[in-house]
Write a structure and sequence with these properties.
389 residues; five-stranded mixed beta sheet; rod-shaped; alpha/beta
Length: 389
């Protein structure tokens, strides 16, 4: 059965090219030397990325191999401006990161609902010959072509945005905890890798407050090197503000298992060690008080430790208190996301089309058109106007 959770897609995107400016000389019955009246071309359509909280996966883009914006329309006679190409908006879930598929370079990040990021800019329309008229050149016979389009193959990667991320080996009780604390209903069974895709749940707290918890598929030793399912989902842990490590109480060495998990995160991304961490020893209903006291002496002392049992509902209130305290600690508060943090980064050597006029009114990067290309009217095109004496 095909999974509905898609967190990686590759799409070829292309903005619209600008329309060509018109090279036209007005020639009618009562005004045979009407001068230039060629209109400007329309701009090509832009491509934007837009954050949309109604999506939580990239499933709707899975089969979108190509996304093209409209080209701008060509200019016309009588100074008619070409139509602008329609812009294209690609809706993505919050937490989507974009990379250039050809270079692998980071392009932009869509982090919040309603955020719009310009991915590819449409080409400007070329100027018509009406724009190049001067006192010394009253019948310019040239016009500008439109700017070319921009094209890029992008990779969209979704990194779940959650306050608390559950980290643990398979069958550590992550899904059971999420289903107990929230209304989420992940698949729960007594075998490894029951969870094959991340799940999100909203955990209620005191005074109508809440936080989001993410259940990440189990990590195994060597996950950072591609073993198991860990490599595919480790990136989702990067966006979690707080990491809740879960180790079963019946494990032979709880501290060693915690250190293995920590080592896998370090190998994948050393910055993960800067996140606040909490250690939850699960299935504590199988342990007596004396054994719990003995285990506490062997556990790490550089992070909060709590013994819980999702089935017996033990220690869950204390766990939520600890999580809430850590989430709201001064050192863990996330900085506000601003538009400047998500500007599109482009290579400096990207070729861009420029078509500017000199200060004296001369044409810049223009395309010259032969006299043979001048549009002539027949009798049906003649425009009759009243001429005053």
């Amino acid at each position: 059965m095909e999974s509905n959770f898609v967190d990686y897609v590759k799409i070829c995107c292309r903005s619209g090219k600008g329309g060509r400016g018109s090279m036209h000389l007005r020639h009618v019955k009562y005004n045979p030397n009407g001068g230039p009246d060629g209109g400007d071309g329309g701009r090509g359509g832009n491509i934007y990325l837009r954050g949309n909280h109604n999506y939580w996966t990239l499933l709707h883009l899975k089969y979108e191999r190509h996304i093209f914006a409209e080209h701008g329309g060509n200019g016309g006679r009588d100074k008619c401006h070409g139509t602008d190409g329609k812009d294209v908006y690609i809706d993505v879930p919050c937490g989507t990161v974009v990379y250039n598929a050809d270079t692998g370079k980071y392009v932009c990040d869509v982090s919040y609902d309603g955020q719009e990021v310009l991915l590819l800019k449409g080409g400007r329309g070329g100027l018509g010959n009406f724009q190049f008229r001067t006192a010394t050149n009253q019948a310019p016979r040239y016009a500008q072509p439109g700017e070319p389009m921009q094209e890029m193959t992008i990779i969209l990667e979704l990194k779940l945005l959650a306050d608390v991320g559950l980290v643990g080996f398979p069958n550590a009780g992550k899904s059971t905890l999420l289903s107990t604390l929230s209304s989420a209903r992940p698949k729960i069974a007594n075998y490894p890798f029951t969870t094959l895709e991340p799940s999100l749940g909203i955990v209620s707290y005191r005074d109508n407050q809440s936080f989001v918890m993410a259940d990440i598929p189990g990590i195994i030793e060597g996950a950072s090197e591609g073993k198991g399912l860990g490599l595919r989902f480790l990136r989702h842990i990067e966006r979690n503000s707080l990491l809740l490590f879960m180790v079963p109480g019946d494990t032979d060495d709880i501290k060693r298992e915690y250190e293995i998990l920590l080592g896998e995160l370090k190998n994948f991304n050393p910055e993960m060690l800067d996140k606040h961490r909490v250690l939850a020893v699960t299935k504590s209903d199988l342990l007596d008080e004396e054994l719990i006291e003995m285990l506490q002496e062997t556990l790490p002392d550089d992070l909060p430790v709590v013994f819980i049992s999702s089935v017996a509902n033990q220690g869950l209130v204390e766990l939520k208190d600890i999580l809430w305290r850590e989430l709201n600690s001064e050192s863990n508060k996330l900085t506000a996301i601003t538009a400047e943090d998500t500007l599109v980064h482009r290579d400096k050597d990207m070729t861009r089309f420029t078509a500017e006029m000199e200060a004296e009114g001369e044409a810049g990067d223009i395309e010259f058109i032969d006299d043979s290309e001048i549009e002539d009217f027949d009798e049906d095109d003649i425009e009759y106007i009243d001429v005053e004496d």
